[in-house]
Amino acid sequence: MTLMPQPTTPDSPALRARGLRKRYGAEQALDGFDLEIRRGQVHGLLGPNGAGKTTAVRCLTTLTDLDDGHAEIDGIDVRRHPARVRERIGLVGQFHAVDEALTAQQNLVLFARLSGLSKANARRRASELLASFELTDAASRAVSGFSGGMRRRLDIAASLVLTPAILFLDEPTTGLDPRGRATVWQAVREIAAAGTTVLLTTQYLDEADQLADRISVMDHGRVVAEGTPAALKRRLGGDRVAVVIADAARLDEAAELVGRTVGSAASVDHDTRTVTVEVDDGQKALAPIVRALDGAGLTVDDLALRRPTLDEVFLHLTGPGGQSASDPTAASTPPLHETQEAR
Ligand SMILES: Nc1ncnc2c1ncn2[C@@H]1O[C@H](COP(=O)(O)OP(=O)(O)OP(=O)(O)O)[C@@H](O)[C@H]1O
Ligand SMILES: [Mg+2]
Asked: From atom 17 of ligand 1, which residue's Cα is the shortest distance away?
């Protein structure tokens, strides 16, 4: 009853989009949007308000017509065969689709009937979904009394009435408390483990970091960076070593020494007496830095190794002065090298 549709061309990606364009009045909501998702992966589409995430989801799920570009899902052309595409996808929109006045069970039966299941099969599928989303106890309560997390889980359950080949989740955890987010994350992991490809939009960096195999960062209607969470973090440079020097008067000397040791320029923050330097491999750099400082009689108060957070990557790529603002060619940034990915 819930067999996943067989791919038409098994080696095609689950989703492929090239040069998508969509304009609303003066607003170019999609401006050459590219995306490719391999089967079975969770892909995070990360971007600030108005970046075009919902527009991309609506166009890919056939709800909105594209002005230009090519999109295919499971090898099927989205613009030419929207009905066939719809058979293969599930969508959880940014706003709730379930009916407040109905119970959880009634909502799921309704969705199942709309999807073409017989009455008996619809009831059976509703029970299965209520169980797998831990809503069985709440099955006969009206949705109006549900918490945000419960509603979201019901929304997601409703999108899985027929197991989709690819599930679109538009900001599934916006507005949820940490517990609600955790239950939705768990649901997404289980859906992916069962073989469904997931495209998830989010404004939360930690969410993309937690759930996604790969992330596309979008801004102004186009993708400005793409890669694994780890590769995106590396893109800001490597690890950072921060050394707090005891003697404020010798900071510049320390920076010069640290820079010479690792072969790149170190920066100095006089307020915190900190020398910071970017290194390829933080673990390897620590010992030589400490030895050099020790050899020069410089006392180290503190030493820290850290990687850039996804927040920093995001600000770097989309913020004022970021690539997308200052460099119109940023969208054609070549994909990250596989050697980097494999590290
Ligand atoms: N139906 C519409 N009519 C007019 N303009 C629209 C419409 N839908 C989107 N836009 C505009 O297109 C741009 C992209 O909007 P979109 O909703 O896709 O962004 P988003 O990344 O989903 O943002 P959010 O994080 O706020 O959900 C915005 O400037 C928005 O105002
Ligand atoms: Mg949106």
From this structure: 54
